[in-house]
Every structure is written in structure tokens, then in C-alpha cells.
Amino acid sequence: MAQESGYRWGHSGLTADFDLDGDTPRLVRLARPGDGDVKDAAEAALPLVDVTLFGVGTGWSGPRFTGTALGPRLRHRAHYATYGDSWHHLTVELLDPASRLAVFVEYSSPDGVPVLRSRVRLRNDSDVPVTVRSVSSLLLGALPSPDVLDVHRARNDWLAECRWYGEELRESVPDVGREFHGHDGRAGIRLAGRGSWPTDGHLPMGAFTDRTDGRCLLWQVESAASWLWETGEADHHTYLSLSGPTADDHQWRQVLGPGEEFASEYAALALGDGFDGALAALTSYRRLLRRPHPDHERLPVVFNDYMNTLMGDPTTEKLLPLIDAAAEAGAEYFCVDAGWYDDEAGAGSGTAAGGWWDGVGAWLPSARRFPGGFGAVLDRIRERGMVPGLWLEPEVVGVRSPIARELPDEAFLRHEGGVRVTEQGRHQLDLTHPAARAHLDGTVDRLVGELGVGYLKLDYNITTSAPGHLAHSRAWLGWLSSVLDRHPGLVLENCASGGLRMDGASLAVTQLQSTSDQQDPLRYPPIAAAAPTAVPPEQGAVWAYPQPDCTDAEIAFTLGSALLGRVHLSGHLDRMTSGQLALVREAMTTYKSIRADLRTALPFWPLGLPGWTDDWVALGLRTPVAGPTYVLVWRRGGDTADRLLPVAHLTGLDEVRVEVLHPSTPRGSAEWDGAGVRVRLGEVPAVMLIRVTS
């Protein structure tokens, strides 16, 4: 609890208790109204922020950025709370008397939502430069003991995204006997992003669940660059530190001259009953945070010609029948993916070994591929009632591209010594430079203004750890916002080799998020089911790529995977029989009948978060105000054809209606049994989309 001299800030969904009167200001309790206290926790609270500088490092031996020398020296100067646009804000102003570094800890929280957002601003009030090595975005101590907490993380790899796993925190933070040593152990969990793909390796997320009462604390670092989170033990309690790039982990540093400022990346914490409850709060927060856009309301079906279809080799001859078939199937956008700019002889190649890979950058339509003009293809898309879209990889310039010679060296990210970053035959633009921005502004304005493109799939297929990427990533997000300011109806899809830039900062600006490049429909279900942990359902693009050589069950399976997200339709629809195309059209009609509910629905997992090899996978979406509940279930194997899918918020109700929405001709059954939906799927593979109403 807060001390008598403490300060309480918050609202109906969240309260934060501070001790601002001691030598070191501290956040002693973060909770929802009605949550119990953590026993004897106040004395284990940590400083509000930890900072390391050149010459001022950690306060004790150990490779972690808590317990720093500077953090406990910070003194309270002022604090002020404001409220506006349904958000509560609190700034706590601190000063280090020795270095004259002013620190502004900025908290915010949407009214009624149990989520805390935080960042830290630094200002050098001295008359000499200081170099920052690390700064926490949010530091929180006084959490329950590692004895009672499980910790959860999410591996995120190319073709295998959003794979959550957990363990007891004591497995990584052993009890070393503080009473004998007078110190906490050095063990902990330290998870860092790597390179310029912020979600390569792991999502910048994590969670604690308390085994004694089921409460959950879930977090994300909102960075399109590099990030770090760290947890361990402090005075018999657990601490959590969330931060952006650091000198030790990411070759990052920031020099602040007298009077200069730097702001950390944002981080957010969500509280809830269990993982599902905390993720529901985080989903609501993500929706409030993002840029408003009509796409979030309409949720149109997008056909993309790439996956398992043209694979980067579009031509007029191949596209025209595909455009007609996509329109018949119910697509509303048609995106021509990679290769439309490739004017070299031979088949399209998106590999570093040859083809267009190291020649991109000018983004001009190919005359060879479209002998009648590319405009004729785009016109055909519009004639069939769809909005044309294009794939674009704006941040890269191939080493053979004329743009690599036209732009100055300063327009590219460079290593120390001024050498351009070159990865896989490509240079990386630096959007802090006006020439780089002008090049991309001209490109987008030409594609949108002259060609009439209404959708851009923005890909990013190289990664680098070069210095300067944090500034570039912030300039990148600013550039995306400026594009949408000029073209407010344009839809932007965020992609980086699938889901390798699936971070909160990017999702707040772009409208759709690619969840994976996975080409095997049998391996997509755990990705599709877990994607709402990283992205709201209405933004998560899931591939559905039925083929003419598929059985009807296989067509239903791949289509079903996308029905509780954003449909990214693909496949050789132009080669299908009329009966097969009817199956695709029926699935798209089903999706359009429910998509209005996806905009506000909150995810839950009837079978828990999926394992990569699970035979049964399930995702639920619960709409607010007694609306319908949707459950999507896949069966990929196993001997058991029956499974109970618990739906906790409807447990005990007598009058519950269960409808099978997909496939249109069910190959199984679903019925309510008082605690959930009992399904029977006799075939493998099989999928079923169920609507449950009470």
C-alpha cells in the first residue's frame, strides 16, 4: 500500500501508488481497484528509472541494467497530472544532482482500461556533454515473489511466429539464500531484440501469471528498432525492466549536449485475470492507441497474387484471369506482389542470387511484363470492382540500382567510418536524411497519385545492426504517418519477411500486419490462433491459399484459418472448377457477415495458447455487450475426434445456441454442453468456425 505521505494516481481501471517523499522516488504498487496487496512489497520497490552513462554504470557487479549507480541518486523535483481525450497522464520530474541530468518519467493510461504506458525523457542540464548507454522505459519492483510466478515468452521466427512458452520463474531465478549473502542473486531473464527486425527471435512481449490467484501482468516494448526486457529478484520480490536499445546489446549510444533531450521508446503493462484477461486489456489499449483509419471499420478482403501462386512473377497474361477469378470469389482489394518492376529477361527472381533482388529502388513498372502497359492491369482491377494494390520494399536500394548512385552516401545507413550498410546486395536508406525521404515521397505519390494505387504492402527483407537504426526507425514511422496524411484513404500493410516487424509502434500507424510467410496450410493454424497476442484480430493478415488440386476439405481448411483475422486470399482461383470457386465465395460471404464483430471482439484461447505441433488448436473471439462469441477450431491429427472447447464467460447458461458457419457443409458437429462447445471433427485436416449466442 502507499504510505501516508504517498501519492495515488489512476482511474476506475488502474491505480498507481507512489512514494515521492523519500530519498529515491518509487512506484510501490500498480494494481486494479480491488486487487489485493503484495505482502511486504513497499520496501522492495525500485527507483522510477534506471540510467547508465559513460562514466556512470551499474551500482553492483552484474550484466543487467537494474541497480544502477545513477537511479538511486535521482531526486524528486515535481509531479503533475493531466487528463484529456479520455487519457490520464502523469509526469514525475527528477534530477541527478551530480550529473545535472534531468529525468521526466511520463506515465499514461486510457480511462477505464487497466494498462499503463510509460516512457522516460532525459535532458542534459549540465554544461558538458553526457553519453547515455541505456535508459529504462519502465522500471517496476515490488512484484510478487519469484516463488509464485510463471513467466511467459513468445518465440517469433520466420515461418514460425507467435510461439508462446512458459516456465516457473524460479527455474531461471533460483533462490540463492539472500539471508546468507546480504545480496540478491545475479540470475534472471534478459531478452533482447536483435537487428532491425524488432520481432526476429522473440516478440517484444512477456507476461507473469501468479499461481496463487491467477492474476496476470502482460507487457510489450513498443519499438520498431531494438528492445530489451529483464526480470529477476530484488529483496524477495520480482522486478521488471523494459527498455529500448542499449550500448551493450545493440551498439547504441546517445550523446546529449548541454540542453539536449532524448526520449526512450514506449512500453506498456496490462493487468488482468489470467493471460486472456490481460491480453483483452492490451487489445483494447492497442485499438485506442493506433491511428484512426476507415480500414479498421470496413475490413475488406484482400487478394494477393504471391503466396503459393505467382511467387514474384506477375505478367499481364497471368494476372488478368486471376483478377477476374478473385473478383468472382468476393475480393475487394487486389494486390500485385513482388516482381511488377522487374524488367530483366527470364523468370522473376526474388533471391539474392540473381534477378531483380539487388536492382530494386526505382519502382517503375516493367514494360517487358506488361506489354500493353501496367495501367491496363490496374484498370482491369478497378473494372472488376476492386481497389488495386502493389508490393513495395521502400527502405532498400539494390547495389545495381541507379538510385544507389543518384542518392548521396548520407541518405543511407552507414557503419562507423562512413561505409554504407550492404546486406544481401542491398543498401539501407536512412530516413532521417531529406534526400531519402524525398525519394520515397516521390515514389509513393507517383504510385498513388498517378497510377491510382489504394493499397501498399510494405515489405522489409534485410536486417542490420548498424548504428543509427533507432533514429531511422522513428523517422520511418513518421514518414508512414506523413504518407497517410497526404493520402488518407491509402491502406498500408506492414510486413518484414512475414511477421518480423510485428511491433506495437508499427501497428499503431499501419492498418494491416502480415502474420507469416508460412506456405504450408497445415502449419499455419498455431500462427493464426496466436497472432492476436501481438496484433488485434482486425489487423492480423492471415494467408488463405486454396488450390485447384486441393480436396474440398483442404480448401475449407486453408480458408477457415483466416476467418477470425484479415483474409489474405491467394491461390490459383482462375484454374478452379465452378464448384471449387463456389466454396471460396461461400467462405468470403461468411467472413463478410461476421467481420463487423471482429472490430471490437477480444480474443481468448479455449485450449490455451497453441503449441507448434498440437493436434487441436482453437481461437475464440468474444464480442462485448452480450454479443456473439466466435470459436475457430482446427484438427490436424491425433486419434481423438471429439474435443470440448471451454467458453468460460458462458458457462452455466441454459439457452445457448451453437451455429456452424464454416464449412458451409459441415463435416462434423458442434453442440453446447453447459461448459463449452463440444465438437466432433472426424476428418484430418478439419476446421470449423462456430458462432455461439446466448
CATH superfamily of the largest domain: alpha-galactosidase from lactobacil brevis
Task: Assign an overall shape.
Answer: globular
For the sheet with most strands, the description reads: 11 strands, antiparallel
Mean pLDDT figure: 95
Measured by DSSP, the beta-strand proportion falls in: 25-35%
Spans with pLDDT under 50 lasting ≥5 residues? Answer: none
Strand elements, count? 39
Organism: Streptomyces sp. R41
GO molecular function: alpha-galactosidase activity
Pfam families: Melibiase
EC number: 3.2.1.-
Question: What does it look like?
Answer:
The protein has 694 residues and is α+β, with helices and mostly antiparallel strands. The protein has three domains: 7-289, alpha-galactosidase from lactobacil brevis (Beta-galactosidase, Chain A, domain 5), CATH 2.70.98; 295-514, Aldolase class I (TIM Barrel); 604-693, Immunoglobulin-like (Sandwich). Helix content is 20%, strand content 33%. The strands form seven sheets. Strands 5, 6, 7, 8, 10, 11, 13, 14, 15, 19 and 20 form an eleven-stranded antiparallel sheet that branches. The longest helix has 21 residues, at 578-598. 51% of the residues are buried. GO terms for molecular function: alpha-galactosidase activity.
